[in-house]
Amino acid sequence: MEFRTTDLGDVSMVALVGRLDTQGVGLIETRFTATVVPPARPTALDLSEVSFVSSMGLRLLIGTARAMAMRGARLVAFGAQPMVGESLEVAGLGDMVPLFEDESQALAMLRG
């Protein structure tokens, strides 16, 4: 698991790559949280290259979204592969991290 960040001026974009399972979360959790939460900037997560999400991955996303919300920032996601999107929906993640089909929809939500 790895991630890449992009500064889009008024928002940040973070592309996650790999499997959001126990091992993957263990590899990125501290750096990911330190990169995304303290700046308290609206952030869009690109999930197009995430092939699997486990309960540990859900915990990371929910924890990050909660920490950002406490700082007044929003976290949204887009581009999930069908299996990943279904896992996020079944877990009810949409209440904390709205999931959009593409980048433009996610960015419009953050900027709107």
Structure description:
Helices cover 44% and strands 29% of the residues. A 5-stranded mixed β-sheet has the order 1-2-3-4-5. A hairpin with a 4-residue loop joins β1 and β2. It is globular, with a radius of gyration of 12 Å. The protein starts with a strand and ends with a helix. The mean pLDDT is 96.
Give me a quick take on this structure:
By secondary structure, the chain is an alpha/beta fold. It is 44% helix and 29% strand.
Distance between the termini: 31 Å
Could you spell the SSE succession in H and E letters?
EEHEHEHEH
Return the structural class: alpha/beta
Q: Could you describe the largest sheet, including whether it forms a barrel?
A: 5 strands, mixed
Which radius of gyration do the C-alpha atoms yield?
12 Å
Strand order in the largest sheet: 1-2-3-4-5
Mean pLDDT: 96
Oligomer: single chain
List how many beta strands DSSP finds.
Answer: 5
Number of helices: 4
Question: Which runs of at least 5 residues are low in confidence (pLDDT < 50)?
Answer: none
Strand % is 25-35%
Shape: globular
Fraction of residues in helix: 40-55%
